[in-house]
Design a protein that fits this description.
Layout: H1 2-16, E1 36-38, H2 43-57, E2 68-83, E3 89-104, E4 109-121, H3 126-159
Parallel strand pairs: 1-2
Antiparallel strand pairs: 2-3, 3-4
Length: 160
Amino acid sequence: MKNLLLASVAALMLAGCGFRPLYADGSFNEVGEGLITVDEINDRSGYLLRRELLKELAIGLPGLNERANLKVALEEDLERITLLTDGSVSRSFLEGRAEFTLTTESGEAFNGDAQVQIPISATQSPFGDVAAQTESSARAMRELAGEIVDDLRLQLESAR
């Protein structure tokens, strides 16, 4: 009897804490969703950018009191420069560019673009180069998300 009581109390506490089952259906997304939704963005970098945007926008944007949707088009390029005498690359740059549109329920739209450039030191190992590119891509998406949110904050502030 005591175990049953503890189990039911634990179940009630889990229900109230925002616990979300790992394999839940789509109806769970509506419970904890903020005012701003972010459309899915293709590829690994798009996933990272969307994740960072959701983190940045979880608290909302100042002056935005209605639901809104953010759409982002992402481009990512790797530029290799400075060839050494043996033909190898000593430096690379990862460039990320995003064009975005925040559309509110009332139909108001805020557009913009953001760009970041992340330097990568080339390594002699091909595996090290892949790891450096992967980490640079993650860093670029964090910085790009910050630039997008900063731009939206400025636009919303000037729209007041």
